[in-house]
Amino acid sequence: MDQMLETLRTSLEELKLELPEGAPEGLCRFGEAVVEQNKVMNLTAITAPDQVARLHLADCLTVLKCADLRGKSLIDVGCGAGFPGVPLKIACPELELTLLDSLGKRMNWLESVLPQLGVEAQCITARAEEAVQDRRESYDFATSRAVARLNILLELTAPYVKVGGAVLAMKGSAGREELAEAKNAIKQLGLKLEKAEAFPMDGTEHMVIVLRKVSPTPARYPRRFAKIKQAPL
Description:
By secondary structure, this protein is of the alpha/beta class. The protein has ten helices and seven strands. Helix 5 (about 105-115) links the parallel strand 2 and strand 3 (about 120-125).
């Protein structure tokens, strides 16, 4: 854990982020758990301790530079191995976290490992466009990382967010291009661009796009995923 923790502390200093006591160690315990489980389940291509610290843990925490999550509810749509939701919960224990993914094996693992790490989260195994039926506009925030292009992602996430809340979309170097492409989706789904903040990460640009929910998302969204993919907004 030493190398992962040292790299994470350096990254936190660069981001000017102060975490609660014990949070960096908790983050690294989760990072180590992901790497260990990756030996038997495909969770991540990133396994070197320093890269896990920067490209998984610190990267997820850039969301904290863009939104105050304290006392709020957040759903991580397509959470995969638990990024960014679990690191955000560890760094901000007051956050009420829901993890959503369609792959049962991943969710079963998260349900098993998170209590061992002292992390509280509701784990839901379902497709995003189906689980929303009884969770529509129930969360302060929806976030997602490396799931789909922005115009597709927004149709899957915006319906979960209350008016006044926000979608926090994590994007890579194509973020600005995807943002331009998603202008129609933003308008149709009741969103408004608040800011797009870039963070340099190992020679590339990572971005958090904050889209405020200004009006209810029409009930016809989200459509079936095949339709979303075939004809993105």
